[in-house]
Amino acid sequence: MRERTTGTRQxxxxxxxxxxxxxxxxxxxxxxxxxxxxxxxxxxxxxHATGVIREKRAAVVGELDNxxxxxxxxxxxxxxxxxxxxxxxxxxxxxxxxxxxxxxxARDAAEANRIVVDLARAKQAREVVKVKSMATQxxxxxxxxxxxxxxxxxxxxxxxxxxxxxxxxxxILVPAIHRNRxxxxxxxxxxxxxxxxxxxxxxxxxxxxLAEAARLHLREKFLRADFAVSGANFAIAETGSLVVVESxxxxxxxxxxxxxxxxxxxxxKVVPSWRDLEVMLQVLPRSSTGERENPYTSIWTxxxxxxxxxxxxxxxxxxxxxxxxADQVGRAALRCIRCSACLNVCPVYERxxxxxxxSIYPGPIGAxxxxxxxxxxxxxxxxxxxxxxxxxACFDACPVRIDxxxxxxxxxxxxxxxxxxxxxxxxALAMKAAGWMFxxxxxxxxxxxxxxxxxxxxxxxxxxxxxxxxxxxxxxxAWSGARDAPxxxxxxxxxxxxxxxxxxxxxxxxxx
Length: 512
Description:
Elements: E1 3-5, E2 8-9, E3 15-16, E4 19-21, H1 29-36, H2 40-62, H3 67-83, H4 85-98, E5 102-106, H5 109-122, E6 127-130, H6 134-138, H7 141-147, E7 151-154, H8 157-164, H9 181-195, H10 207-224, E8 227-230, E9 234-236, E10 241-246, H11 250-256, E11 260-266, E12 270-271, H12 274-288, E13 296-300, E14 311-317, H13 321-326, H14 341-345, H15 347-352, H16 363-374, H17 379-383, H18 393-397, H19 404-418, H20 426-438, H21 441-458, E15 468-469, H22 477-480, E16 485-486, H23 493-500
Parallel strand pairs: 5-14, 6-7, 6-8, 8-11, 9-12, 11-14
Antiparallel strand pairs: 1-4, 2-3, 9-10, 10-13, 15-16
Helix pairs in contact: 3-12, 9-10, 16-19
């Protein structure tokens, strides 16, 4: 497994190095989830947090009698944008350029990072303040800036917790959802003094006190930094505007104080018109934070002389999105507006946590988006489409109606097709053997007789009249380790039907 260092420096200017693992090279989801399931503190944190968010969402969605119509409208808006993405992207570039912004196009993470680093170097920036952005985390921009000697500071409270804790985000909306407030207090006391204003020595785990410590720590960075990086929730083709919604006001600080602003925006974030935004701003906050509207919604179009950033840049990021768009089924994942509603209702995510997905995009949407963006060459990406029980709760919650269960099945098929040939896995061998048996009724009947004979023997008084097999022999013991395997029936349905003429014969009439 490769390692990376965090993008932070101590107050004296020396690097503050923390080691975490990168995503690629991780174990499969199933292996990582098995470890996560033993973390009882994380499971308790996740259950509490997702439960609270679900209740809030249900309350505000229940207020609307046209919620399903809004979902259908949001789906149609995103589909319209994706089906004519080439046209809307060009329109967005023209409008944004006319408003004074400079638009850059980035094929992949390396190109996007190079653009941002070059802009920062041209401005002689030594540090950067950042609005929460999953796109910049996807391309590992913080690491690229650090390699260039530039500090990148996360200003979202949860992202700050993750950064100071040398951690990875585990949730789309609440990246530090796996941490409780006692853990946050310890992180602030231990780490803040290494990279800036220290936390108060008498800091408690009271949420207002923790928020105050973060606010004071970040204030000096806001006032000092002259270069900011943001993402965007939406890009409006009609006007060339970018939209960021957030809850703390840190985004507003980053979008108004620095002289230079660079926004890294995935090409799928485009919506056709200003009017479309009205629908999206109804479904997004209700689905994400369980609020009727976000506390802070920032919209900007280029730069304005004497007000806010004077040098505005927009990096339109592909990084695999065009490949996703080419898949007529898989492209539905690009409708995602990063609300995290699917995570909050997913029983698998609630128990396994976000780190097990090995991606900046965890949960059900990550299980269908990540393998398409990165491909399925690694074991972690091959395993993600199987990180689901296919219960369908994610589709019911999704504000843009992404049919995630169908996408998971689609990607499972792709994984199987892409890895045909070579040395077959045990599962493939088992399926091949089952296919051989079911292909001929005589083989199937022979297998029934063997199973029935085994069932009679196991139910005999000599063996204790067993009804459940606690442990199967290898390699089936991996399956029975978490399940009770029933003892095969003493008689098959086929045999019973033949003996009783389909149930019409009584006990005294049964054929010998």
